[in-house]
Amino acid sequence: MTMYCPICRTNYSDADKFCPVDGMKLFSRKDEFVGTTFAERYQLQKRIGAGGMAIVYKALDLRNNEVRAIKILRPELAVDSTQRIRFLREVKAARAARHDGIVEIFELGELPDGNAFFALEYLDGITLARRLDRGLLPLAQVFDIILQVLRALHGAHSLGVVHRDIKSENIMLIEDADGGERIKILDFGLARMKGDLRLTATGQVFGTPEYISPEQATGGDATPISDQYAAGILFYEMLTGRTPFVGAPGKVLFAQFKSQPVPPSRTTISRPVPGKVDPVVLKMLAKIPDDRYPDAEHAAAAIEDLAQQLL
Description:
By secondary structure, the protein is of the alpha+beta class. The protein has 2 domains: 31-121, Phosphorylase Kinase, domain 1, CATH 3.30.200; 126-310, Transferase(Phosphotransferase), domain 1 (Orthogonal Bundle), CATH 1.10.510. The chain is 31% helix and 20% strand. The chain is built from 8 helices and 14 strands. The protein has helices at 81-96, 128-133, 139-158, 214-217, 224-240, 249-258, 277-284, 296-310, and strands at 2-4, 11-12, 27-29, 37-38, 42-50, 54-61, 66-73, 105-110, 116-121, 126-127, 161-162, 171-175, 181-185, 192-193. The strands form 4 sheets. It has a 6-stranded antiparallel beta sheet with strand order 4-5-6-7-9-8, with helices on one face. A 3-stranded antiparallel beta sheet has the order 2-1-3, with no helix packed on it. Helix 3 packs antiparallel against helix 5 (224-240). It is globular, with a radius of gyration of 20 Å. The relative contact order is 0.10.
């Protein structure tokens, strides 16, 4: 079974109870794909997620008896060539940005009706967004997560891939055998590789308002430094429990290129944030890209030095 909203008609996983868009109680209905087999190989077991572009299922790979995730382009978008190209770019970008901190893609396939899907590693964990819903993380964990994110981003950037949509919903936390946690960056649907043709018109804003860089908010191109800005928002959010700017999307976009964030140490939260973090976070969140760290590696080095002083 899957859950759907009777107001906006959006589908969700069976773990969701209310629509995050309009707050409506979700209703259940049978999922047409659950129980079917794709490419004579992937047996879909249950729906585990859904977004604006695609639906994700947990599946069993019948050839090796391993669990996989299957991501399918929404049927209503399959007829849109731009959306299809963007979906296929996710496969290309994630494959190019090979790193232990980035979700692994195994296979790209096509359904009988021509719709596209791809198989990727199944991650048994929780998104950073859901973890933060439970409350603030210990400072040591905050530093560990942001360092992992920045190192994974540096790996992607060195291979010519810009993610363009770093946010807490796109960071998965997975428990290690030793009890620690490692991260995986998800959803390269908005990623852009060096040399790719532009899919959006010049000046068009694409991304998540709370994490989008000032240059993206004003319709400019996203660069590796733009991903660093989004990582800075992520760092701020983990330290304080909220992103620097909240509210209606238009208001947030305006704030991203016009307003200065309150330093993390001066926010009103239930635990103190050391003042030493402020210069590092605010440098990552500089309005002018050239005022940020030269790259994700330099940002990680600054945070690592900070962690050695504070922890």
